[in-house]
Design a protein that fits this description.
By secondary structure, the protein is mostly beta strands. The chain is about 0% helix and about 55% strand. It contains no helices and eleven strands. It has strands spanning about 1-5, 10-15, 20-25, 35-40, 45-50, 60, 70-75, 80-85, 90-100, 100-105, 110-115.
Length: about 120
């Protein structure tokens, strides 16, 4: 079993920044990638970024490249998503997720960017 708990969401003005955290606990044997997704009500959940177990390989969707940075602190079992130059279209519930035998998801954290 793996538990993922997101935090750090909130309300910010356009152009501002937020840092999301994903605290990971439980059995992490075999865990490779940690992913961040986001979802707007009425729309499909959208992949945002991922990072490998060593923290040396990352991937971002085009709409967040250059603005978001994913990182991980393996000593503290935490993955971060630093979000800068936020836009109203970044407003969503953000989830971290991983797969170890099956998919695991956190409960999500709301990010609201006002114009």
């Amino acid at each position: 079993q793996v538990q993922l708990v997101e935090s750090g969401g909130g309300l910010v003005q356009a152009g501002g920044s937020l840092r999301l955290s994903c605290a990971i606990s439980g059995s992490m044997i075999g865990m490779k990638f940690i992913n961040w997704y986001r979802q707007v009500p009425g729309k499909q959940r959208e992949f945002v970024a991922d990072i490998n177990s060593g923290g040396d390989s990352t991937y971002y969707i085009d709409s967040v490249k250059g603005r978001f940075t994913i990182s991980r602190d393996n000593a503290n079992n935490t993955v971060y998503l630093q979000m800068d130059s936020l836009k109203p279209e970044d407003t969503a519930v953000y989830y971290c997720a991983t797969a170890v035998g099956r998919d695991y998801w956190g409960q999500g954290t709301q990010v609201t960017v006002s114009s």
